[in-house]
Write a structure and sequence with these properties.
The chain has about 425 residues and is an alpha+beta fold. It contains 14 helices and 16 strands. A hairpin with a 2-residue loop joins strand 11 and strand 12. InterPro entries: Aldolase_class_II_sugar_metab (IPR050197), Aldolase_II/adducin_N (IPR001303), Aldolase_II/adducin_N_sf (IPR036409).
């Protein structure tokens, strides 16, 4: 997946990604480490015992090919297994190790998350290996991890420890890391409200085989100021979604109506964290901006705009607590607090596969609700202004979180029909 991250120096790449991991609560001040091996065979790695929340580029250590250490700190204590991976797998150019809570949960019960829980996760993560416990920082740990990578894995659960992931570059490794942790969270949260359902390999193959947008290209494209303004708004919301844990690098689509049925939409195969205004794709008169590939969900957005004139923005994403309902086919009753129902009303769910273009599902397009959940795939949220739509997404995710967490206390007691009617009369008429 394309990313501008690869154009930065290894030390800058590492500090940027470790900051994302830390701020998203997927590692601690002292935990986790990242490395990149460059074309010279030198390995750039995070330092030992330095605050991950305030790491600077100047803190990154370089271990030369000859073993010379360059930098003002010691390299990570886990450096031996990073080097062991590079020695055994020349196709891997970056390694991430961290202790994200959900994946650690799997490691301490000695299980591997089943990535068939979400459409694209199996493709992004690949098969998952499992390394038996060895002393952290030891050469034995490096040996057992390297043995798993030798089998062809790019993601490995470390028994009673955490996870380690490799990639063709740091962007590739981070996408795999995010997607695997999302799978783990979705399974864990789903298990608190029901029984997670997994997709078959055939269903995933059908998802992957969907053709990219076949919209014809425009001969020329104009970029008036109002169009550019919407591009910037989309980029800001995409970044905010990533920072808030409502979107990941490899999945999430945002669009805005421009004028008439013309709209702007995020592209496919571009890292969501690094989305820039030049990446956004203009769709005008049924044609796409030349040289760009819009999201595979473009047809859904296009049809929603055509058939729902009051909808001016759409977000399609996978946020972990909403996905818990998606994978368990559990009804998300947002009659938890008045504000949730006022914003969202009732949230329907459609079967997996009905969102494929060939099926042209009218429940998604014609009966367009503020929010809708697609089994094992995503949530679609619509609204007028994009910020309003983002707010609806946050409200839906917070409501889902409250229900998942509250389920351990007892049965949810929603507001009753009379109270709902009272809300309807006051706020919706």
């Amino acid at each position: 997946m394309a990313s501008k991250l690869n154009l930065e120096h290894p030390r800058d790449q590492i500090t940027k990604i470790i900051s994302r991991i830390y701020k998203r609560g997927m590692t601690t001040t002292s935990g986790g480490n990242i490395s990149i091996i460059d074309d010279n065979g030198d390995i750039w790695v995070t330092p030992s015992a330095i605050d991950k929340g305030s790491l600077k580029s100047s803190d990154i250590i370089c271990v030369r090919k000859d073993g010379t250490v360059v930098g003002k700190h010691k390299p990570s204590s886990e450096f031996p297994f990073h080097k062991a991976i590079y020695d055994i797998r020349p196709d891997i150019k970056s390694v991430i190790h961290a202790h994200p809570p959900a994946l650690v949960s799997f490691s301490i019960v000695r299980q591997i998350p089943n990535t068939n829980i979400i459409s694209q996760a199996k493709h992004v993560c690949g098969p998952i290996g499992y390394a038996p416990y060895e002393l952290p920082g030891s050469h034995k740990l490096g040996d057992v991890i390297a043995e798993e990578f030798k089998k062809g894995f790019k993601a490995v659960i470390m028994e009673n420890h955490g996870t380690v992931l490799g990639g063709s570059d740091l962007n590739d490794a981070f996408e795999r890391f995010e997607a695997l942790e999302l799978c783990a969270r979705t399974i864990l949260y789903g298990s608190q409200i029901g029984t997670p359902n997994y997709l078959t390999d055939n269903q995933i193959e059908q998802f992957e085989s969907q053709t990219q947008s076949t919209l014809p290209e425009m001969a020329t494209t104009e970029y008036p100021s109002d169009e550019v303004e919407k591009r910037l708004e989309i980029c800001n919301i995409v970044k905010r979604s990533c920072e808030q844990g409502l979107m990941i690098s490899s999945y999430g689509t945002v669009s805005m109506r421009w004028k008439g049925d013309d709209f702007l939409i995020t592209p496919t195969h571009v890292n969501r964290w690094d989305m820039a205004i030049e990446d956004i794709v203009q769709i005008k008169d049924g044609q796409r901006e030349a040289g760009k590939n819009p999201s595979r969900a473009t047809w859904i957005h296009q049809e929603i705009y055509k058939r729902n004139p009051k909808v001016n923005s759409i977000i399609m994403t996978q946020s972990p607590y909403l996905m818990a309902f998606s994978v368990t086919k559990s009804y998300l009753n947002v009659r938890t607090i008045p504000e949730s129902w006022i914003f969202l009303q009732d949230i329907p769910m459609v079967e997996y596969g009905t969102h494929f273009k060939a099926n042209n599902n009218s429940q998604i397009i014609d009966d367009c609700t503020t929010a809708l959940i697609i089994e094992n795939d995503s949530v679609i949220v619509t609204g007028d202004k994009l910020l309003q739509t983002f707010d609806y997404l946050e409200v839906a995710e917070f409501s889902a979180k409250s229900i998942v967490l509250g389920n351990s206390l007892g049965n949810m007691v929603p507001i009753n029909d009379d109270q709902v009617e009272e809300l309807r009369q006051k706020f919706l008429t």
